Amino acid sequence: MEVERRGRVILLNGASSSGKSSIGRALLPLLPDPWFLVPVDAIGAMRSTVHTRVLDDRDISEILRRTRLGYHRAVAALASAGNDVIMDYPLSEQWRVEDLLETLQGYDVTLVEVRCSQDELDRRERVRGDRPVGLARSQTMVYAHGEFDIAVDTTTAGPNECAATIVNALGTVPLPKAFDRLRHRRHI
Fold this sequence. Notes:
With 188 residues, this protein is of the alpha/beta class. The protein has one domain: Rossmann fold (3-Layer(aba) Sandwich), CATH 3.40.50. 45% of the residues lie in helices and 15% in strands. It has helices at 20-27, 40-45, 57-80, 94-103, 118-128, 135-138, 159-170, 178-186, and strands at 8-14, 35-39, 84-88, 108-115, 150-153. It has a 5-stranded parallel β-sheet, with helices on both faces. The radius of gyration is 17 Å and the shape is globular. The N and C termini lie far apart (38 Å). The mean pLDDT is 91.
Protein backbone atom coordinates (compact mmCIF):
# COMPACT_ATOMS: atom_id res chain seq x y z
CA MET A 1 0.00 0.00 0.00
CA GLU A 2 1.48 3.31 -1.06
CA VAL A 3 1.22 6.41 1.13
CA GLU A 4 0.02 9.44 -0.82
CA ARG A 5 1.82 12.05 1.26
CA ARG A 6 4.42 12.37 3.94
CA GLY A 7 3.31 13.82 7.22
CA ARG A 8 4.44 17.19 8.50
CA VAL A 9 6.38 17.68 11.72
CA ILE A 10 6.26 20.58 14.16
CA LEU A 11 9.21 20.35 16.54
CA LEU A 12 8.72 22.31 19.77
CA ASN A 13 12.27 22.92 21.03
CA GLY A 14 12.96 24.57 24.37
CA ALA A 15 14.45 24.09 27.77
CA SER A 16 12.83 21.95 30.43
CA SER A 17 9.73 23.69 31.87
CA SER A 18 9.58 26.20 29.01
CA GLY A 19 6.02 25.15 28.13
CA LYS A 20 6.49 22.77 25.21
CA SER A 21 4.00 20.17 26.46
CA SER A 22 1.32 22.75 27.25
CA ILE A 23 1.75 24.37 23.83
CA GLY A 24 1.60 20.96 22.15
CA ARG A 25 -1.72 20.18 23.84
CA ALA A 26 -3.05 23.66 22.93
CA LEU A 27 -2.07 23.15 19.28
CA LEU A 28 -4.15 20.00 18.78
CA PRO A 29 -7.61 21.61 18.58
CA LEU A 30 -6.29 24.54 16.50
CA LEU A 31 -4.63 22.63 13.67
CA PRO A 32 -6.67 21.49 10.70
CA ASP A 33 -6.44 17.77 9.98
CA PRO A 34 -5.55 15.27 12.68
CA TRP A 35 -2.16 15.67 14.36
CA PHE A 36 -0.37 13.40 16.83
CA LEU A 37 1.27 14.98 19.87
CA VAL A 38 4.27 12.74 20.58
CA PRO A 39 6.33 14.10 23.48
CA VAL A 40 9.65 12.42 24.18
CA ASP A 41 8.55 11.99 27.80
CA ALA A 42 5.73 9.69 26.63
CA ILE A 43 8.27 7.43 24.93
CA GLY A 44 10.45 7.43 28.03
CA ALA A 45 7.42 6.57 30.18
CA MET A 46 6.96 3.35 28.17
CA ARG A 47 10.32 2.05 29.38
CA SER A 48 10.39 -0.30 32.37
CA THR A 49 11.78 1.08 35.60
CA VAL A 50 12.63 -2.15 37.41
CA HIS A 51 16.21 -3.27 36.81
CA THR A 52 17.92 -6.45 37.93
CA ARG A 53 21.23 -4.62 38.27
CA VAL A 54 22.43 -1.24 39.49
CA LEU A 55 22.89 1.17 36.61
CA ASP A 56 25.83 3.53 36.62
CA ASP A 57 25.86 6.92 34.85
CA ARG A 58 27.25 5.40 31.66
CA ASP A 59 24.48 2.76 31.54
CA ILE A 60 21.80 5.39 32.12
CA SER A 61 23.29 7.65 29.46
CA GLU A 62 23.26 4.81 26.92
CA ILE A 63 19.66 3.87 27.76
CA LEU A 64 18.58 7.50 27.32
CA ARG A 65 20.48 7.77 24.03
CA ARG A 66 18.79 4.64 22.65
CA THR A 67 15.41 5.93 23.83
CA ARG A 68 15.94 9.24 22.05
CA LEU A 69 17.19 7.57 18.86
CA GLY A 70 14.06 5.39 18.95
CA TYR A 71 11.92 8.49 19.49
CA HIS A 72 13.36 10.10 16.36
CA ARG A 73 12.55 6.98 14.35
CA ALA A 74 9.05 6.62 15.83
CA VAL A 75 8.24 10.17 14.72
CA ALA A 76 9.66 9.46 11.26
CA ALA A 77 7.60 6.25 11.05
CA LEU A 78 4.38 8.09 11.89
CA ALA A 79 5.17 10.81 9.35
CA SER A 80 6.18 8.26 6.69
CA ALA A 81 2.64 6.87 6.87
CA GLY A 82 1.22 10.34 6.18
CA ASN A 83 0.57 11.38 9.79
CA ASP A 84 1.27 14.91 11.01
CA VAL A 85 3.29 14.96 14.24
CA ILE A 86 4.02 17.50 16.96
CA MET A 87 7.30 16.74 18.73
CA ASP A 88 7.85 18.04 22.27
CA TYR A 89 11.61 17.68 22.47
CA PRO A 90 14.60 19.73 23.65
CA LEU A 91 17.52 19.79 21.21
CA SER A 92 19.86 19.86 24.20
CA GLU A 93 22.66 17.79 22.66
CA GLN A 94 24.26 18.30 19.24
CA TRP A 95 23.94 14.61 18.31
CA ARG A 96 20.15 14.93 18.60
CA VAL A 97 20.13 17.66 15.96
CA GLU A 98 22.47 15.68 13.70
CA ASP A 99 20.42 12.49 13.97
CA LEU A 100 17.12 14.30 13.37
CA LEU A 101 18.54 16.03 10.30
CA GLU A 102 19.23 12.59 8.84
CA THR A 103 16.16 10.77 10.17
CA LEU A 104 13.71 13.49 9.06
CA GLN A 105 15.39 14.13 5.68
CA GLY A 106 12.66 14.75 3.12
CA TYR A 107 9.99 15.67 5.68
CA ASP A 108 8.42 19.11 6.12
CA VAL A 109 9.76 20.07 9.56
CA THR A 110 8.85 23.36 11.22
CA LEU A 111 11.21 24.14 14.08
CA VAL A 112 9.56 26.20 16.83
CA GLU A 113 11.79 27.79 19.44
CA VAL A 114 9.99 27.93 22.79
CA ARG A 115 11.69 30.59 24.90
CA CYS A 116 11.26 31.55 28.54
CA SER A 117 13.24 33.71 30.96
CA GLN A 118 15.63 31.92 33.31
CA ASP A 119 13.91 33.31 36.40
CA GLU A 120 10.54 31.99 35.20
CA LEU A 121 12.07 28.59 34.34
CA ASP A 122 13.48 28.35 37.88
CA ARG A 123 10.09 29.32 39.34
CA ARG A 124 8.30 26.67 37.26
CA GLU A 125 10.79 23.98 38.27
CA ARG A 126 10.23 24.81 41.97
CA VAL A 127 6.44 24.64 41.50
CA ARG A 128 6.58 21.39 39.52
CA GLY A 129 8.75 19.60 42.03
CA ASP A 130 9.37 16.71 39.62
CA ARG A 131 12.77 17.85 38.41
CA PRO A 132 15.77 19.55 39.93
CA VAL A 133 15.71 23.35 40.02
CA GLY A 134 18.38 24.46 37.58
CA LEU A 135 17.78 21.71 35.00
CA ALA A 136 16.64 24.28 32.43
CA ARG A 137 19.70 26.43 33.13
CA SER A 138 21.91 23.42 32.44
CA GLN A 139 20.40 22.91 28.98
CA THR A 140 22.68 25.45 27.32
CA MET A 141 22.71 23.63 23.97
CA VAL A 142 18.93 23.85 23.35
CA TYR A 143 19.30 26.85 21.01
CA ALA A 144 22.99 26.38 20.08
CA HIS A 145 22.18 25.30 16.51
CA GLY A 146 21.04 28.91 15.89
CA GLU A 147 18.09 28.22 13.58
CA PHE A 148 14.31 28.25 13.97
CA ASP A 149 11.23 28.94 11.87
CA ILE A 150 8.89 30.33 14.53
CA ALA A 151 9.63 31.62 18.03
CA VAL A 152 7.31 32.04 20.98
CA ASP A 153 8.08 33.28 24.49
CA THR A 154 6.19 31.72 27.38
CA THR A 155 7.58 34.07 30.02
CA THR A 156 4.30 36.00 29.95
CA ALA A 157 2.31 34.39 27.10
CA GLY A 158 0.19 31.34 27.89
CA PRO A 159 0.07 28.10 25.91
CA ASN A 160 -3.10 29.02 24.02
CA GLU A 161 -1.64 32.34 22.87
CA CYS A 162 1.62 30.64 21.82
CA ALA A 163 -0.28 27.89 19.98
CA ALA A 164 -2.33 30.50 18.10
CA THR A 165 0.88 32.34 17.15
CA ILE A 166 2.35 29.10 15.78
CA VAL A 167 -0.77 28.17 13.81
CA ASN A 168 -1.00 31.68 12.33
CA ALA A 169 2.67 31.61 11.33
CA LEU A 170 2.72 28.12 9.77
CA GLY A 171 1.62 29.29 6.34
CA THR A 172 4.14 32.13 6.21
CA VAL A 173 7.37 30.33 7.19
CA PRO A 174 9.97 31.28 4.58
CA LEU A 175 11.82 28.60 2.65
CA PRO A 176 14.22 27.00 3.09
CA LYS A 177 13.10 26.03 6.57
CA ALA A 178 15.43 25.76 9.56
CA PHE A 179 16.17 22.02 9.16
CA ASP A 180 17.06 22.56 5.50
CA ARG A 181 19.32 25.49 6.41
CA LEU A 182 21.02 23.35 9.06
CA ARG A 183 21.54 20.52 6.54
CA HIS A 184 22.99 22.97 4.04
CA ARG A 185 25.32 24.42 6.67
CA ARG A 186 26.55 20.89 7.52
CA HIS A 187 27.57 20.26 3.93
CA ILE A 188 29.42 23.53 3.28
